[in-house]
Automatic annotation (TrEMBL):
Keywords: Membrane, Transmembrane, Transmembrane helix. The chain crosses the membrane at residues 20-44, 74-92, 99-116, 122-141. This is DUF2127 domain-containing protein. InterPro entries: DUF2127.
Length: 154
């Protein structure tokens, strides 16, 4: 598979990721916090997780409480992250030369933040996304070099 094809696949995936983050942020903005805590309470009180005083029930209620506390951050983060990714994908798909270094810097900043958050939250997903972003940064830089070579040759 050519680097160009890998690059197209990577930016398509990044675009889908950005769209999902934007939609997720908008959904979080619309869903009332009371609905999340109410759902968690309903699951626990109906013994759907076993013992209402058990570990799993406590974790669900704790997670719902953390969601309520961090909701504004999550909404702003998801919407901003989604919009930035969609803008970068649009520019890269149209081969806007100036967008390549910007994309590399922005995605590298996302990697640093994802690693920082993973260390503090012990998330298993964030290191995976950071590694995926590193691969995309490498592909963006390779595509940028090739684009510059092609333009000099033309």
């Amino acid at each position: 598979m050519s680097t160009e094809k890998l690059f197209r696949i990577a930016i398509t995936l990044k675009g889908l990721d950005g769209a999902l983050q934007l939609v997720g942020g908008l959904v979080l903005m619309i869903v009332p916090a009371s609905a999340v805590t109410g759902f968690a309470h309903a699951v626990v009180t109906r013994d759907l997780l076993g013992d209402p005083e058990g570990t799993l029930a406590r974790h669900l209620e704790l997670a719902a409480g953390h969601f309520v506390e961090g909701r504004t951050f999550a909404v702003v983060y998801l919407v901003a992250h989604g919009l930035i990714k969609l803008g970068l994908v649009w520019a890269l798909a149209r081969k806007v030369t100036r967008a390549y270094p910007v994309a590399a810097v922005v995605l590298s900043a996302f990697v640093v933040y994802e690693i920082f958050r993973a260390i503090h939250t012990h998330s298993l997903a964030l290191p995976f996304f950071a590694a995926l972003d590193v691969v995309i940064v490498v592909l963006v830089l390779r595509e940028y070099r090739q684009l510059k070579r092609d333009r000099v040759a033309a």
